[in-house]
Amino acid sequence: MVENLAQPRATTDHLTGLDLDMNGDTLREECGVFGILGHEDAAALTALGLHALQHRGQEAAGIVSFDGVHFNSERHLGLVGDRFTDAATLARLPGNLAMGHVRYSTTGETVLRNVQPLFAELEVGGIAIAHNGNLTNGLALRRRLIAQGAIYQSTSDTEAVLHLIARSQRTGSAERFIDALGALEGAYAMVAMTRTKLIGARDPNGIRPLVLGELGGRPIFASETCALDIIGANFVRDVENGEVIVCEMQPDGEITIDSFKPFPPRRERVCLFEYVYFARPDSVVAGRSVYGARKNMGINLAGEAPVEADVVVPVPDGGTPAALGYAQASGIPFEYGIIRNHYVGRTFIEPTQSIRALGVKLKHSANRTAIAGKRVVLVDDSIVRGTTSLKIVQMIRDAGAREVHFRVASPMIYHSDYYGIDTPDPEKLLANQYATIDEMCRYIGADSLQFLSIDGLYLAVGGEKRDAQAPQFTDHYFTGDYPTPLTDLKGRGKRDPKQVSMLREAV
Predict the structure, then answer these.
(1) Domain containing residue 459
(2) Which among 161, 323, 383, 437 could bridge 379 via Cys, Cβ 3.0 to 4.6 Å?
(3) Which of the residues 31, 226, 247, 441 is marked catalytic?
C-alpha cells in the first residue's frame, strides 16, 4: 500500500491569475468531469469535452492520459482554452485513454496540488480520479485516515477516495474503487482511470449528473450531454443513481462494459439547481431539456406573478430562457434590455473601492433604446445575496425605465448547500435578512418583487408538484430537506427553520 500519493510522469504545473468574483452574489459553479477509453485522440477529445463543461468550473483544469506504459498529467490553474489548445501540451498527453476535470473549489484551496484529476500509484497499479460534487463526511474521513497513517498531499475531499482504495482488502482496482465508495456520504459524479479501465459512478441519490456516451464504439463519461455534442459523440444513457459502470480494454482490443449497483436502491433526486442555473441550456439532464425547463419556469412565473408592463428583460445569461417563457405566457414583448460584455477577463483586478463599485457595469450595460420610458419586468434565475440585483435595478432606472418589476424564476434560497455548490452562510442570504418580501423589494430598489413557488419550479422541471413525503429532486437550499447525513456539520449548529417561517408563509 502506497501512502504517499505519487505524481505521474511529465506533470507540468503553471500558475496563473485566479478568478476574482467581483460581486459576490452568484452561486459558484461546481466541477465537470470527462473521460474516454480507446480513442487515438483521447487527450484532444478530453480537452474539447472540458471546454464544453467550462461553465461548471473556471479556476483550474487537468487531464491525465495513459500511453500503455506511463500515466501523463497536465494540470493548470485557469481556463481550458488558455491551457489545453496548443499542440505541444496535447503532445505531452499521449495514449488512447484519458480523463479530465474542470474545477471550482468548494472544498480545498485554489492551489495546484488540489487540481484534479488526482493520481496515486498503488499496489494495484496507478489510478486517477476526478470528482464533481462534495462529500459531507470528507473531514471525518480525513481525520480517520490520517489517524491510520495516511499522508494527505491536498486539501481536496476527493483525495480520501484514493486513500480508501489503498486500504481496501479487495483484489482488483474496480473492486477497491467500489469498496471505497461505500464509505462516502454526500454528492459525487466520479470518473476514475486505471491502465485498462475507465470507471464512472454516481452517488446513491444521483444528486450530480453523469452520462455515458460513445464515439465510434469508444465509451465516454461526461457531466453533461453538451460535452458529447461538441465532439460529435452519441448519448447512450444516464449513469443511474448508485450505479458504477466499468469500461475495460481487453487484451484483444475489445472493450467490455459492466454495470454494478452496490448500494440499496433509492429514488433518484437530481439537484434542482442543475436546471435553474448550473447546466448549460443545450444539455439534457436526467432526460429533461435544461432549456425547456428554464422556459417553463418563466411560463409558470408569469402565471404566479403577473404584472402590467411594457417589456420583459432578462438578466443575462441565466435569466434569458425564463424571460422568454415569461414573455410568451404574458404576451409582453421580450427585449434585450441588458447587454452582456463577454470579454471581461475573469482575472480583472479591482484596485480601489470606486473601481469595485463599477463591477456590474464591466459585465452588463443597459440598452437604453429598449427600456427608456417603459415599465420593465426584469427576470433572473435566482437571487443569492441581492447585491448584484440592486445594482441591476439601479442601472435599469438610470437608463430611463419608468417602473422596474423583478421576477425570479426559482424560490427564495434559505439554506446553504453542502453538495458542491458554494453558497454563503445562511445569515448572508437575502431571504434570511428580511422578514417580508416587501422589505427585500425595498432593498433591491424595485417596484415589485416575486419569486417562483417551489411547486411552480417542480412543475416546470418534472411536470408534477413537490411530494413532501418523498421529494422528487434535491431541493434543500429552498426547503432545508437535506437528502444525506451532514456528518461534518455535527456539533456546529444549524439555523432554526422557525426563523424564516414568517417569510415562507408570505411566499
Answers:
(1) 292-506
(2) 323
(3) 31
